[in-house]
Design a protein that fits this description.
Blueprint: E1 3-9, E2 13-18, E3 23-28, E4 31-37, H1 47-56, E5 64-67, E6 75-79, E7 84-88, H2 95-109, H3 130-139, H4 143-150, H5 154-171, H6 186-193, H7 198-216
Parallel strand pairs: 5-7
Antiparallel strand pairs: 1-2, 2-3, 3-4, 6-7
Helix pairs in contact: 1-2, 2-5, 5-6, 5-7
């Protein structure tokens, strides 16, 4: 059976699949880190409704979801302090794009102390409140990118969250390779994986699996 290399980082980190299988493997040099389905076997007709249903079963309660105000920024953030998901520019997005974004923020929220309490989670609290984040967004569109580069733990949290979103998406029939799936798609988490030390990769994968199990009530 032929091996298709999906993504390759200098022959050190590779994502590949055998033939036309829906299962792909992530390998660091000769070490198998992850083997999982990357394509759903069926497709959900309403991804946004599916994500909202998943949120209803989150313990101990679902985070609040509100719309933020920004004339230029389209995206989202999760406020750790307020346990609140804030979505921006949804009037400029399709339903599939909103579902993708919302699922990504849900994967952030499961790391909260009241849920799975991810040990490296403190890194993403650099903009922990909605107000401080909105001020930063308006003054610097590259705010989140800079946060990821400069604050310890944020890059690993983003890798964990995007991989978690991929694992959930495949289970509920959302295609993580579709247009607009930038926040849960596997090219996005591979990009972040390529910059992480091996130990952080292993921890991120374990946290992503735990987060997906929590969201899916497995």
């Amino acid at each position: 059976m032929s091996r298709e290399i999906l993504l390759d980082e200098h022959n050190q980190l590779r994502l590949f699949r055998e033939g036309n299988s829906r299962v792909a493997s992530l390998v660091h040099e000769d070490v198998l880190l992850l083997k999982t389905e990357l394509w759903p076997g069926w497709f959900c007709p309403s991804p946004l409704a599916s994500v909202r249903c998943l949120m209803q079963t989150l313990r101990p309660m679902s985070p609040r979801v509100i719309k933020g105000k920004s004339k230029t920024f389209s995206g989202g953030l999760y406020s750790v302090v307020e346990d609140t998901i804030v979505l921006y520019g949804t009037n400029r997005m399709s339903g599939e794009e909103i579902a993708d974004l919302l699922l990504h923020e849900v994967c952030h929220c499961v790391g909260h102390a009241s849920r799975l309490a991810r040990p490296h989670y403190a890194g993403m609290t650099g903009a922990s409140s909605q107000t401080s984040s909105e001020l930063a967004i308006e003054h610097s569109p590259e705010f989140f990118h800079q946060l990821e580069l400069e604050v310890d733990g944020v890059a690993q949290e983003e890798f964990t969250t995007i991989l978690c979103g991929t694992l959930v998406a495949v289970r509920v029939g959302i295609d993580p390779t579709a247009t607009g799936a930038g926040a849960v798609g596997w090219p996005a988490w591979f990009k972040r994986a390529s910059g992480l030390p091996l130990d952080d990769l292993k921890q991120g994968i374990a946290d992503a699996r735990a987060g997906a199990a929590f969201i899916l009530n497995d």
